[in-house]
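quick one before i forget lol
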Amino acid sequence: MSYKSILGIALGMVIAMAGSAQAATIIARGEVFETGMTLADPTDLWVTPADFDRITGFTLKPEGACLDELCIPIIQNKDNDLHVTREGQAYLNVTAFADKIQQAYAVDRELGVWSFGLAPATRKPFLESAMAPDFALKDRAGNTIRLSDFRGKKMLIVSWASW
């Protein structure tokens, strides 16, 4: 039996054992989303296509999940690691998608809370510009100093946190 066959059987068993929909709280893109239509799964977060779009910021299209000109292929006409259909309802695997685009996430399964970091693709404009965003801090004398005060000058920014 091939690796793909074993993976497909295992995926089918997990989804079949998972049962009905359950509620989840998702923190992503600086927002909190509540959804009651998740597919129960002991390891992954499966949501409806509408919730997938809200959570990820990607738009589901026939060719896959797209953000501007970037499209991640998702086969939507048969069950696979990113898409399944149960009782006529399609579900997308947000955690497998996050793994695919190298997006960090954390979960508290007991509370049903999932938190997703920024997708690397959304940071592309910032990385290409090589410009730090403007911010303001107080110096030791209490004066407000802005990064933009030093535009055109070379700077070294050192940060530290006790936590």
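fyi Residues 3-19 have pLDDT under 50 and may be disordered.
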